User: Fold these one by one.
Assistant:
Number 1:
Amino acid sequence: MTEPEWWWEPLPLNEAAALMSGFPGPWWVVAGWAIELHVARTLREHSDVDILVLRDDQAAIRSQLHGWDVQVAHGGRLEPWPEGLHLELPRSGLWARSDLAGPWQLQFLLAERDGDTWWFRRDPRIRLPIAEIGLHSPSGIPYLRPELTLLFKSKDPRERDEVDFDAVLPLLDDRACTRLAAWLPVDHPWRTRIVGRSVYEL
């Protein structure tokens, strides 16, 4: 999209992580950047920086990004986010920029929880303890586990998702392979490749 309202100049990852310093709840870098943090090398260019926070912690985004323009991204449109409005499903995305007339710089995704358990909004049967859904890079940046990142990417994978899958598959341990294969549809092409490299019966 070329309209000014869709103009993106994402923050460098280190700046995005620094901006989240002191955030009162857990947060994780997700999507393509999470894969690069796991493989510890550059794979491709990124059009944005995505950060996952718990839906219950959404109000803290306003305090963390005081003075920023933050809007709801839903259904291919941007919507105002009135002060005090608690976003519920299906709305799960926020775009943020430091300048009202400038480009968008950061995207937030809202994660679902049931007590201390995270659940996947496209399939509530998929659940993990919140304490287990993330890892940390050597520099301390929290990021979503690769098998969860691939789960999010598995619906209608694009070329960049295939690049990410190819890069991280050799680094998945057997537990991650077992999880992801169980989560994916039986006929998903990624599942066939995962089963082929895992030592476990899936």
Number 2:
Amino acid sequence: MKKLIAIFATIALLPVVASAQNIGQCGWGSKLFHDQSGIAPQVLAATTNGTSGNQTFAITSGTSGCTQEGVVRSSWKTAAFVDENMTRFAHDLSRGNGESLDTFVSLLEVEEGDKQLVGQALQENYATIFPGIEVSSEEVLASVKTVLLSNENLSHYAANV
């Protein structure tokens, strides 16, 4: 009986473990649920990849939408920074320069030659990024990502937001 409970617990946790590792990004699951949004397609894609074991092979072989050049990134640093420095960041962003803006751009891993362009793009879109006093750090980061994605030369930095 204990083995049966352990097996069911393991199967039940597969979607959680899979989604925690962002497994739905490539593999059969990503192909089956391509362009679908919401939690259900993400969990189903992750479950498909986790239960079939295909994603490991796909990453290794470069098939099913997986590549070997992938980089594991985390946006917790930018989120924590904006959350802790919202007022200073807003002030620096409105001016287009300052220590908190420089730090934020560094957290995005912006190349030296693009730092001024990123700062300028963010300053020009200040009203979009900070539409009011009650804006949350999550909304600020979503707007920053949108601004970067809308600029062909800077869009690759959006993945680091």
Number 3:
Amino acid sequence: MKYRTIFLFGAPGAGKGTQGRILGAIPGFFYCACGDVFRNLRVENPLGREFIKYASRGLLVPDEPTVALWRQSVDNATRSGQFHPDRDILILDGIPRNLNQARILKDSLDVLSILYLRCNDINKMIERLQRRALRENRLDDAKLSIIRQRLKTYERETAPVLKFYGRKLVHVVDSEQTPQKVLHEVLGHITKV
């Protein structure tokens, strides 16, 4: 079964998590943030150590463990009754992070739309990430050098994923607006799906 899916797409600090948590609270949607799945792993878990090793340098965790962990998370959410694939739309944040992951997930996802939260103000994204680091104690957002590396990694590895899915699916949302205005735009696109 392919999961009906909407991607929240954009650079770190573009506002994907803010919008995803709101959408996930609406009946008929299930929000899955791959980064949160990794951050919830215990340090004793080999994959948890792997995540810390990569995230602390601003790099992406290798594809196979990332996709395996994502599948396990979605399966657990289905078994626990949080996610109902037959009636819910999956809102994905943080996966696929590169072309290889997009290819691996091709047979699992029925991509309905890609909401590309674009923020051209790098300083605004850095500020958001640093605020989040303080609020949520996130190692991958704590140091300016790591943030800059994450933004470079995004441009190099993640941005090309948009071309993989094609322009017809991509809807650009200006995420420099207030979260309320961004949500208004996001909901406008979702109602067309």
Number 4:
Amino acid sequence: MTPNNQLDLFDNRNHTSPLQQNLEIEYIRDCFNKNESDALFDTLKNNIEWKQDFIKMFGKSHPIPRLTAWYGDEKKTYTYSGITMTSLPWTKELIAVKSKIEVYSKIKFNSVLLNFYRSGSDSVSWHSDDEKELGEEPIIGSLSFGGIRRFRLRNKEDKKQIHTYELENGSLLLMKGKTQKYWEHEIPKTKKKVSGRINLTFRFII
């Protein structure tokens, strides 16, 4: 059964463009209500073991423009941009959140990457969640708490083809199918005054 607050942002059956047929995403606007979302934002902000990772570019080390954390089942590691993360044990809040979004995803997640965007200066550049440990057609459950941030999807072949969405407090964005193979996404910087945002991207590590 499709939840009544679920909005299909993109449905392959209704689009015929070859470049768009591989984009499969769903947006659940009120996965968590405002009170739940605000409480979870505060809990995660204060209790998650946030860390500042660094990435090497042109021989120099640069701080990633956001704080991150990696939680999951025992010995679930994840590597991206040369950074290898070893999972911390699930907290009771993360387990509760995971159980709720699995109703929408129809799969059991075993890990989650958390990102804390403290201000509009924090961001994540164009990338795809296509690491080999995620499998051929990963389902990514992206949950947002806190301030609204702009999320953009860009076709890897036709980079002029961009879809833009505003991810709201308590919303869930599901990316499925061949989305990661043919599309990339970003959270761009903004000069607008925006509140802090915590994003949880649930995954299944093979």
